[in-house]
């Protein structure tokens, strides 16, 4: 049986993090969840993560800063950035940084799944 892709979820909102993790597991993905960017950066699964789903605004490092740190370290991962504050400037920054998808909250479940499928189809940055 083929290995299921590992999707890391980084979100400081525990209820959103758990809901996203349950959804992705039900869709057939392996998941790991983290409450902040630093925990993910220091995790053992960082190198085996196929896709990152991260909130934009979190205490400490933002989701965009996390993505940029991964790319700068040579450990780039395709990413989906989620935010309740979908300003045009942030959307442009995410696009220019190479984020695969930018979703504003609330979003449809199928939108998130399509973004993850799109991310998994692309090579690592």
Structure, described:
Strands 2-1-3-4-5 form a five-stranded parallel sheet, with helices on both faces. Helix 4 (88-97) links the parallel strand 4 (78-83) and strand 5 (101-104). The radius of gyration is 13 Å and the shape is globular. It contains five helices and five strands; from the N terminus they run βαβαβαβαβα. The mean pLDDT is 92. With 125 residues, the protein is of the alpha/beta class. Helices cover 41% and strands 20% of the residues.
Global geometry: globular
User: If helices are DSSP runs of H or I spanning 4 or more residues, what is the number of helices?
Assistant: 5
What characterizes the major β-sheet? 5 strands, parallel
Strand content: 15-25%
Beta strand count: 5
Note the run of SSEs as H and E. EHEHEHEHEH
Report the mean per-residue pLDDT as an integer. Answer: 92
The whole-angstrom Rg is 13 Å
Could you estimate the helical fraction of the residues in percent? 40-55%
Q: How far apart are the first and last residues' alpha carbons, in Å?
A: 27 Å
Uncertain parts = none
Category from helices, strands and their pairing: alpha/beta
Major sheet: order of its strands? 2-1-3-4-5
